[in-house]
Specification:
The protein has about 190 residues and is mainly β. The protein has a single domain, classed as Jelly Rolls. It has one helix and nine strands. Strands 3, 4, 5, 6, 7, 8 and 9 form a seven-stranded antiparallel sheet that branches. The protein has a two-stranded antiparallel ribbon with strand order 1-2.
């Protein structure tokens, strides 16, 4: 039984034959969907996807720049944070927020430097910071990848949840675009 975000890697072998290429299968769990999503700060002009609906539409992006899944499924920011407000008509208990991102370091697409989770237990109250996760900065170039970053915290009841993902402010010194701001691309968010 798969009950959490899981990546399965498989190869086939037969005596006397060369092994197959690796096949990768990814499964994502999303037990909770918000009633509404608001994008607080502007998305990058060319990475709008389907706006607020993009984060919970179950459409996963790909790497191929010529594929509809590239152009239509990725939301992105570079010059400001990605800030989203998620509202629940009936409060929900959440302990994991996962952002599925693209990492393609050679083109300046990096993981976020931090992800903050804020919440309200009632609609009239103020937001309270629940958790902040610092994401390690890659130390060298590596093969491009699509993956979910899981932000885990103690189970909390939310009537409204705010997610702030901060793009990397300065690309590392080893990179050709050192000191420039990185692009952050997100196609889906999973709540559990």
């Amino acid at each position: 039984t798969i009950n959490a975000n899981t990546r399965i890697r498989a190869r086939a072998f037969k005596a006397g034959w060369i092994g197959s290429d690796e096949a990768v299968f990814e499964y994502y769990k999303c037990a909770i969907t918000p009633d509404s999503v608001t994008v607080v700060l502007p998305l990058n002009r060319v990475h709008q996807a389907n706006g607020p609906k993009s984060f919970f539409d179950r459409n996963l992006g790909t790497f191929s720049a010529n594929a509809p899944a590239w152009a239509n499924f990725w939301t992105g920011v570079r010059n400001n944070d990605m800030e989203l407000n998620l509202n629940f008509k009936t409060p929900k208990t959440i302990s994991i927020v996962s952002l599925r991102i693209m990492e393609e370091l050679t083109t300046g697409i990096f993981p976020p430097q931090a992800i903050e989770i804020w919440g309200k237990t009632n609609a009239n109250g103020p937001f309270k910071r629940i958790h902040i996760m610092k994401v390690p900065v890659p130390k060298e170039t590596r093969f491009h990848e699509l993956y979910a970053i899981d932000v885990k915290f103690k189970p909390t009841l939310f009537s409204e949840l705010k997610i702030i993902a901060k793009p990397l402010e300065k690309i590392p010194q080893w990179h050709g675009a050192k000191d420039k701001r990185a692009l952050l691309l997100v196609d889906e968010i999973f709540l559990n």
